[in-house]
Amino acid sequence: MLFNSLEFFIFLPIVFFVYWKILSSRVSFQNIFLLGASYLFYAWWDWRFLFLLAFSTLLDFYSGLLIQNSNHARGRKFWLITSVLINIGFLMFFKYYNFFADSLRDSFLSLGISLDLPTLKLILPVGISFYTFHGMSYVFDIYRNQGKPTKNLVNYSLFVSYFPLLVAGPIERASHLLPQLEVPRKWNWKQFKEGLFLVSWGFFKKVVIADSLAVFVDEVFKNYQHESGINLLVGAVFFSFQIYGDFSGYSDIARGVSKFFGIELLLNFNFPYFSRSIPEFWKRWHISLSSWFRDYLFIPLGGSKEGKLKALRNVIIIFLVSGFWHGANWTFIIWGGIHALMYIPSFLFGSHKKYKGTEFSTGKWYPSLREGLSILATFALVTVAWIFFRADDVSTAWNFIHRMVSAMFSNFSIDIRHLFNFTYIVIFILLDLILHAKKEVKYAWQIIFFLLAMLLILNGEKPNFLYFQF
Q1: Which residue out of 326, 339, 352, 402 is catalytically annotated?
Q2: What angle do CA 171, 285, 440 make, to 5 degrees?
Q3: What's the pTM?
Q4: Angle between the N-to-C axes of helices 439-459 and 416-437, in degrees from 0 to 180, rounded to the nearest 10
Q5: What confidence tens digit (pLDDT) does each residue in 155-171 have?
Q6: What is the pLDDT of residues 334-374, one digit of tens each?
Q7: Of the residues 166, 186, 206, which one is the last residue of a structural domain?
Q8: 436 part of the active site
Q9: What is the DSSP letter of 409?
Q10: Is 319 inside any structural domain?
């Protein structure tokens, strides 16, 4: 079920009404109902994958109990490794089997050896990367004595499969979400209004901004051999805003819908394109994933406490794995590698910890000239890397960049659509800044955003959110 579908606009009011009007007296009844609604939400795509979601849930729930009840370190480690290997095994099989089979076949073929490996016609279960990481973080925290396992299977199942975040995050932590599921929730009008703003603004980002830009972006990347350099540059810039509007729009809708039920989700985006460096970008972009890799991969590998060489190794590993997490394609791995290379200079000189706050200027509401240039430079680097993320294969990405540079001055004709789309972007940036700074304004505008988004949903196509494929 898509957030931007008519089915969801029937589903959500029904769940909301039953949750608050019929079941508000007992939190246990609310949780059982939300769990059932979440499984219905997921089954709308393909009910056959419910077994995989349920199996992953039961695996990590009982693994957590077994780890906690083990009297010896060896037993605790055994149950941790068992849980992680099974989780990763399912993820690798459904998401990466064909990638490894094709890569291995091509490698042997380059040596003159024909290797017959079958390619499976697998359907990628929606959200498998997200709910797998939910469960793994829970088991890791119990193993490291940073949390205790819950004995309530319903509450844990809801933590894993809660429908607003089930298919595209944010990737929640048990320490943040589970306590909210264990206590009674009371109706909060202020929280509801905040949720309404997030939902309306999220739909505006997705439907008005991202989907409008997608039309031009798809055309440019499909026919890049025949486009002028300036069109390719514009297409790359538009994709940067498309993926931000699409993914952050989903996160806003998820957080807003969750507020309707009195539950707070983690912030996943914090003005990433106002970052003044690549390290700052990764503190603002897909925050729940970045922090997951920091806590459960970078730090266990030794972090930066075992010398510069090992620290550099760890930085490269987490970026490559982060790229591979996004999909079974070399383009994602190279995208991660590019960000690793761009991150390393700041890491070596110790400036990767420079920006820790939420502001994007020092001591005033607008950036200085130096900060402004740093923002533009960071955005340019991120945009070039996005080309690999968007391209179908590595050769397409390289050829796209080569033609963008070589044909930059060959044709200066301006497509009229550029002007409309640039207008969208400018309005989008200004509204994003103003509405998040002026709380008294956002409630007056949210109806306009919502109605405009609904108008486009009712009269046009309903493209998937980009991160549903991950």
Answers
A1: 326
A2: 95
A3: 0.89
A4: 140
A5: 999 999 999 998 887 99
A6: 999 999 999 998 888 776 677 765 566 555 666 778 888 99
A7: 186
A8: no
A9: T
A10: no
